[in-house]
Each structure stands twice: as C-alpha cells, then as structure tokens.
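[#protein-structures] MJ: dropping plant cystathionine gamma-synthase here for a structure pass
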Amino acid sequence: MSQLKDLQTRVLHTPSKWGEPLHAHTFPIFQTSTYLFDDTQMGADLFGGKREGHMYSRMGNPTVEYFEELVNSLEGGAGTAAFGSGMGAIHSATMGLLKAGDHLISGDTLYGCSVELFGNRFKDMGVDVSFVNTASDEAVVKAWKPNTKMVYLESPANPTCKISDIKGIAKICHEKGAILVVDCTFTTPVFLPALELGADVVLHSITKYINGHGDVVGGVVTTKCPELLQKIKAFRKDTGSLMSPMDAFLCIRGVKTLPMRMKVHMENGLKVAKFLEQHPKIKQVNHPGLESFPGHKIAMEQMKGFGSTFSFEMQSFEAAKKLMEHVKLCGLAVSLGTLDTLIEHPASMTHAAVPEHLLKQQGLTRELVRISVGLENPDDIIADLKQALEQC
Ligand SMILES: Cc1ncc(COP(=O)(O)O)c(C=O)c1O
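AK: finished. structure tokens for plant cystathionine gamma-synthase:
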C-alpha cells in the first residue's frame, strides 16, 4: 500500500523536461504539426541531432513527451515511446527490433490482433514465428532455434490470464542472446514491475487502464536500454505511428490517477471473482488472485497486485450468451480497464481471428466470458451478475 502511495506521488509530481510553459498548472496541448526555426542552422542542427528540440510532430511533440515521461517514471525505464494505438506500440517494439530471417517465440495466448500480426503479417515479411505455451519455461527452451532473437508474451494473458515466469524467461533470453518483450496491459506498471523482473521491453495498450477513461486508443513502449528505445522511436517515425497531442493530453489526465484507480480495480475485481467462483452456474474462474488458479503462485511472487480483468467459463455457450444479454450495469463491449464494467465474448469478438488450433492450444472455449470490473460499488456489479445468472 505504501508503495502505491509512492507511485501516486511520483506520477503527480514528475516534472516535464520542458518545464511549465507560460506557468500553466496542467501541461498544455501543443496542437501543432510543425515548428519554426530561428535560422537554417537551427533546422540543420535539429535534424542532425546536434540540438534538442522539435522539428515536426510525427518525430516528437512536447505534450506526447510529457505523457512518455510520466509512464517512464512509473516503469523505471530508460525512456518511453507513445503510439496512436496499442497495436502500433506492438508493431514498433517487435518489427522495429527484428528482421527477415529472425525467429520470434510468441506466447500462444495473446490479444487476437497480436496473433494476426505475428501469425500472418510477420510470416509474410519473412519472420519465423512459433506460438508456444510460455507458462512453461521448458516449452520456451524447447522452441528455441539458432535464429531466435525475441520472446514476446502477455502476462497475465488475454483472455485466460495465463501467467508466465517473467524472471525465468528473461534469464533464458539473456543467456541465449535474445530480447524479452512483455505486454502488461492487464496489470499496468503499478502492479507488475516487468523491467525489474528482467524484461528488456514492456508495453501496454493505454486504451485500457493507463488512460482509463475509455476515450483514447493508444499504446506505450518502455525499455531500460537506450539503444533499443532509439530503434523503436526510429521505426515509429518511419511508420508514422506517434500518438496525437490531443490524445496525449487526455492520457496525462488519465495516468495521473492510475495508482489509486488500480487499487480500487483490484479490490473490486477480486470481490467479483470470488462471488463467481462459488456460484453453481460457473464452471471455472481465471483470476490470478484466486488460489485455485494455476498461475497463482508465480503471480504472487512476481506481481504486486492484480488488474480487474479476468475470464470465467459457463456451462454452455447458450448460458454465456444469456448472461451477457441479461446484464444491465455491465456494458456489453470489447476493451477493458475503463472506469465502468465491461463484459464480452472472446471467441466471437476480441479473439475471433485466432485460428482454431491456437484457441484449442490455449483453452479458449466458446463458453468463456471476459469481464473488466470497473470502479462501481462491487456489490452492485455482483447483484447485476446474480440477476443475469438467474436467467441463464
Ligand atoms: C493485451 C492487449 N494488448 C494489446 C492490445 C491492442 O491495443 P489497442 O486496441 O490499443 O491497439 C489489446 C487490445 O485489446 C490488448 O488487450
């Protein structure tokens, strides 16, 4: 708890390297596409990297940089890069560090579009990809090839909350000369110190908890290695995926309450998970905070807390459908980590594009429902689920 309060103070008082323009209390939106040079030498120096400043907003923008500084202060990295979407962040953190002929070991349980990106686009570009059960360190070692350059995983993974041993896999990667990239969208830097555990690169869809207000699509990548950051930022420039200044302004507003929001998300999520766990119409609840969950032990060792997004299995697809159609407070929508509670059906929505064999490999069934518990009174969410379950 005291660590949470420290993070809350840190994120509220991290200064911008550009100071407080015009003494503004909140950092302004620099809504400009380009910047004026005093003379031609200034332009040449900026483009030549001899002077710090701004040239063009696809390359950098003060509002975006302040948001990056706030995320970096929570992660404890060497620097952060912000993107126009979580997928943009994933693209730059992977393709920006790989080339044709490299081998990528990817977790088999990932957000559906990440599976599509690696399984289709990367294969077309000549990157060899193996989808592996990263909950087993042995499976990662077994999948290793002479050209393996990166291991990529989500922990807890979307949507079954599969937990991977970040510390153990980081050790394997470093012994064998590869990079470990971890998507920590479900937990945020507040509860999962992935860089401290050994990951080289950590990323998030800030569309979720980090912005939290459900009004921005964006992503962030943080690394403890300046050379990796430079490569990722260069790839972002060339592929044009920088976050917009207006979105960065909203994200600055959002991230400033992240530690305190995560505390409530965690308490509410656990309370709802415990209610579902004892309900006779629920077959199984996948929440890393429950003792019955297979990844519980590693989660307790490596995480400082939990997000509020988890999944549960109903007796049948029909029952799952009825539940999602009878809830009144919970919104039937994809996305997660918003202020209010959202519920969705991974097999036909967020993970609809995942090939059948991978769905089977990761245990993602049609009976599975994903919920992201918001900041409401958790008793109201429980009452809503209870009345919906009575109709299943
Ligand atoms: C774990 C995870 N990573 C990445 C993404 C992609 O983020 P975005 O939708 O912001 O592009 C998502 C989206 O749901 C996600 O759940």
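MJ: nice. The chain has a mean pLDDT of 97.
AK: one more thing. The first helix runs from residue 2 to 13.
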